[in-house]
């Protein structure tokens, strides 16, 4: 049984994030027993995506076109640029419907220990991008140690240019009860209080 | 963004068991960003498996050959036949190393409400199979309502022939503490006690 096609497929499924041997085995049996058509469709779409999806030349998000739909949209505000860590963050902000500017995706945070420096997150490209029409750059990295470090680095870099640099607000989440919010968030929320 | 290749791939991933929209999205981004080679390999293995893997003609387990390696093995006991619900059960018994006979996989239990009757679980094929060399048929279905019903049905069917029919033992799991074992299992364990 050691090198059967079933074992090879189970092994191949392990390349997916969060999939261990048991889940992989279950996926293989499910496809073989119940959804061979689904499996074939998944395989062909995967081949096409692996070949054709690249990064948008302007915002670095994933795109099958040279310039993605958001970057090429004429109805969006070219003067506002939101810098995020990942495609998931673009999706989250788009779903909130609260932002009509454009994006720049760093595809990760600075992490010298992993060899991820300014080049890897596209610092130069961001600098070039923010010198075109952009009036304000919003740094929307996560509030983690790596996110804050990246935001700080990019902030210093961008402030040398002719743009306003801002950081998204930190505070109590909407609907969040004060007693369950952690100390760090409370400190930020109090320091960032606004007069009403 | 509605019908981009990325969205199509995310949608296609939903055919896998236990994969919701968020996990599917994460898989797509992971493959695109970190493991395109893995994705291509997964896709090609999947296509090959969907086309070439069928059921073993003798035991009905998945196999790329007409007769699977277990069924065609000369070193296994042809007189002992173990009937299980799924390929996972074959794997579990094989890994325990405690059985050297052959198998028959029903690929599910009787479930009239889902249209799964004797034909779907291969009752006739099992009857034919057990009339060849087989001396004892061990019914190793799960101890669920469906498993018990299937075992009962197949037991009655097989007893008409010239074979001994047995059911795997139910009782306290090895290493299991008595106080944490459920009442049904305890009842079975007491009724099935052995003189030592």
How are the SSEs ordered, and which strands pair?
The structure is a homodimer of 196-residue chains.
Chain A: H1 5-13, H2 21-34, H3 36-52, E1 54-55, E2 62-63, H4 69-72, E3 80-84, H5 87-96, E4 102-105, H6 123-130, E5 136-139, H7 145-159, E6 164-167, H8 183-191
Parallel strand pairs in A: 3-4, 3-5, 5-6
Antiparallel strand pairs in A: 1-2
Helix pairs in contact in A: 1-2, 2-3
Give a structural overview.
Two copies of one chain form a homodimer. The first copy, chain A, is an alpha/beta fold. Chain A folds into two domains: 5-52, RecR Domain 1 (Helicase, Ruva Protein, domain 3, Orthogonal Bundle), CATH 1.10.8.420; 75-167, Dna Topoisomerase Vi A Subunit, Chain: A, domain 2, CATH 3.40.1360. In chain A, 44% of the residues lie in helices and 11% in strands. The first copy, chain A, has eight helices and six strands; from the N terminus they run αααββαβαβαβαβα. Chain A has helices at residues 5-13, 21-34, 36-52, 69-72, 87-96, 123-130, 145-159, 183-191; strands at residues 54-55, 62-63, 80-84, 102-105, 136-139, 164-167. In chain A, the strands form two sheets. The first copy, chain A, has a four-stranded parallel sheet. In chain A, strand 3, helix 5 (87-96) and strand 4 (102-105) form a beta-alpha-beta unit. In chain A, helix 1 (5-13) packs across helix 2 (21-34) and helix 2 (21-34) crosses helix 3. The model of chain A has no long low-confidence stretch (mean pLDDT 90). At the A-B interface, helix 1, helix 2, helix 3, strand 2 and helix 5 of A face helix 1, helix 2, helix 3, strand 2 and helix 5 of B.
């Amino acid at each position: 049984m050691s090198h059967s096609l079933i074992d090879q497929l189970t092994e191949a499924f392990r390349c997916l994030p969060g999939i261990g041997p048991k889940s992989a085995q279950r996926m293989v049996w499910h496809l073989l027993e119940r959804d061979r058509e689904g499996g074939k469709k998944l395989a062909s779409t995967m081949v096409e995506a692996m070949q054709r999806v690249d990064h948008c030349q302007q915002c670095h998000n994933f795109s099958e076109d040279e310039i993605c739909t958001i970057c090429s949209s004429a109805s969006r505000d070219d003067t506002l640029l939101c810098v995020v860590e990942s495609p998931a963050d673009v999706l989250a902000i788009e779903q909130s419907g609260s932002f009509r500017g454009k994006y720049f995706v760093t595809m990760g945070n600075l992490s010298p220990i992993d060899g991820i420096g300014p080049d890897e997150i596209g610092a130069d490209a961001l600098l070039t991008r923010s010198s075109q029409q952009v009036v304000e750059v919003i740094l929307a990295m996560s509030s983690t140690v790596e996110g804050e470090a990246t935001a700080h680095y990019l902030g210093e870099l961008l402030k040398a240019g002719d743009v306003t640099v801002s950081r998204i607000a930190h505070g109590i989440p909407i609907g969040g009860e004060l007693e369950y919010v952690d100390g760090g968030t409370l400190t930020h929320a109090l320091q960032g209080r606004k007069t009403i």
